[in-house]
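User: Run a structure prediction on this.
Assistant: Running it now.
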Amino acid sequence: MSEVRIAAEPRTEFGKGAARRTRRAGKVPAVLYGHGTDPQHIALPGHDLMLALKTPNVLLTIEGLSGGAELALPKDVQRDPVKGFLEHVDLLLVKRGEKVVVDLPVNLVGDVVAGGVVQQELVQVSVEAEATKIPEAVDLSIEGLKVGTQVLAGDLKLPSGVTLQVDGEALVLQIADATVSAGETETEAEAAEAAEAAATEAPEGEGETASE
């Protein structure tokens, strides 16, 4: 797995105003917690953190702390809903050899069979793995899967030392008939259009409830 070293600075100001000043300085407010310790409020370099977070479940070595460097995993990443920049990050302290539960993306490999279409129900699965050996994704080959095939969580091939933390009977994906799926989509679209037309043509006041 990917491990990134990143320098931290202590944060002594709190509140929305302080957070805005931190971000204007090119840094991201963060909280480091876990293992029964008091939360540490820190600021991390925004550009370096943004690059690091491109890797799912990246292991961070947080340097510059009073007690020395610490290992941490991102647990909650808050971004601006419009511009997408990092607003705040929660980091969980971990130790080498420690087992942690994380969500891994399901990475589809290969091409779907002719006449088939992939209907994916789970885009990620929860697993337990050693904190320093978390895979970036779970690869799932769809090459050669016939129409009608279903893949359950228990069918996924996980790396050694990684164990599934969701119901093994949970549906990950199925290979559906492309023509049937297209027909269902058209039927749903037609039904939606008919409902919208009916609502538009309804007599004035119909469907309205009386004010209390």
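The longest helix spans residues 178-201.
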